[in-house]
Amino acid sequence: MTNSVSAPAKIILFGEHAVVYGQPAIAVPVTDLRVFATFQPNDPPGQGLRVTAEDLDIQLPGDLPERVDDALSLTTKLVLQRIGATHAPDVTVAIDSQIPIASGMGSGAAFAAAFARALAASLNRTLDDDALNTLVYEIEKIHHGTPSGIDNTVIVYERPIYFVREQPIEPIDVGAPLHLLIGDTGQKASTREAVGDVRKLFDSDSSRIQPLLDEIGALVRSARDAIAAGDSQTVGALMSQNHTLLQVLTVSSPELDRLVGAATEAGALGAKLSGGGRGGNMIALVAPETQQQVGAALRAAGAVRVFPTTIR
Ligand code: PMV
After folding, report:
1. For residue 83, how far is its CA from the centre of ligand 1 (angstroms)?
2. What pLDDT does 2 receive?
3. Using N-to-C axis directions, what is the helix angle for 107-122 and 71-83, rounded to 10°?
4. Which of 151, 184, 214, 225 is catalytic?
5. Using CA of residue 289, residue 183, residue 275, residue 246, what is the dihedral sign?
6. Separation of 276 CA from ligand 1 center, angstroms?
7. What backbone phi and psi angles, to 5 degrees, belong to 66?
8. Is the separation of the CB atoms in 312 and 300 below 8 Å?
9. 207-217: per-residue pLDDT in tens?
10. Which DSSP category does 100 fall into?
11. What's the pTM?
12. Three-state DSSP class for residue 92
């Protein structure tokens, strides 16, 4: 059995925020950006479960307390429960993440998924995807409060999905490759806060906000058809429309708007913020011929990192 496992990053192509209110959303894994978790028996033994990562070196007791509320301990507890083990293994799990944190790429869910896979593997067990998805959703609640479940789902199953809260997952067809650039504003942003603010807006003015959410839902359904048909022009136009609606929901930011504007002016087919917003990442849909100039425009407009990915 391999002693290294992993989980990918994700981006939301369409429907973030509205998905919390039961609208559909489309998300895809970013398979080239991953969290790796490598495990090995402790030497000398008897150290309990040790977890190391950049800026992190934690030792968890073999016997966890009844109530735990941090992501690492809860993941451990849920994995042990699921596989019927009574003690945490005497191993070191080393986590190595390529995913920027707090930037809308699912770093928390990917960390939990990779860590849970490593723990199970160190006990010579595997977690099936359904069980892992349920488990990572519990961890998402610690990070995000009231998550829709889209992050854990796309990260665990690692395929493009059309997601509706509490409905069976629908894989989507991708008729022609979608070439995306992911532009990072470099600003960390709290999804929990953005989701909370949209909730306040909704509660204070639902007659104005509900139609916007419905409009996003309709747009996501059109996007699914356009993606399946390989119609990049339409996919791009829908992305830009989705961004405008997210601005009205107050989850964009001057930096995100600047990057979205720069990408569009440089010839992107469409662009929008991706994920919780207020910072973090935006995405631009490009044709292979315009990829370079859009990437340069994003950097010139302040993107601290531009990462290309192709959805197939
Ligand atoms: O910021 P991210 O990538 O974790 O995305 C959050 C997506 C939201 O729709 C804003 C919240 C949710 O739980 O779906």
Report:
1. 29
2. 61
3. 40
4. 151
5. negative
6. 5
7. -55, -50
8. no
9. 999 999 999 99
10. P
11. 0.93
12. strand
Cβ atoms of residues 180 and 286 within 8 Å = yes
d(CA 295, CA 36): 27
Residue 84's nearest CA partner among 120, 57, 42 is 120
Q: What are 250-289's pLDDT values in tens digits?
A: 999 999 999 999 999 999 999 999 999 999 999 999 999 9
- Ligand 1 atom 14: the closest Cα is on which residue? 148
Q: What is residue 69's predicted lDDT score, i.e. its pLDDT? A: 79
The answer to whether 79 and 87 are in contact (CB under 8 A) is no
How many angstroms separate the CA atoms of 10 and 17, rounded? 15
Domains for the chain: give ranges and CATH numbers: 3-163 (3.30.230.10), 174-311 (3.30.70.890)
Compute the distance between CA of residue 156 and CA of residue 199 in angstroms, rounded to an integer: 27
**What contacts 73, CB < 8 A, 6 or more positions away?**
60, 64
Residue type, 33: L
- Told to judge if 57 belongs to the known catalytic residues of this protein, a careful annotator would answer no
Dist CA 227 CA 160 (whole Å):
11
- C-alpha span between 52 and 38 (Å, rounded): 10
Strands (E), the chain: 4-14, 25-41, 49-53, 56-60, 91-97, 161-163, 170-171, 178-184, 270-273, 281-286, 305-311
Judge whether 254 and 282 are in contact, CB under 8 Å. no
Per-residue confidence band for 98, with pLDDT thresholds at 50, 70 and 90: very high
CA 136 to CA 32: how far, in whole Å? 21
Residues 6+ apart with CB under 8 A from 83: 120, 123, 125, 127
Reduced to 3 states, what is the DSSP secondary structure of residue 296? helix
- Residue 3 Cα to ligand 1 middle (Å): 31
Say which amino acid occupies 177.
P
Q: Which residue has the higher pLDDT, 302 or 60?
A: 302
Give the number of other Cβ atoms within 10 Å of residue 162's Cβ. Answer: 23
Structure tokens, 237: 């136009």
Q: How far is CA 112 from the centre of its chain?
A: 12
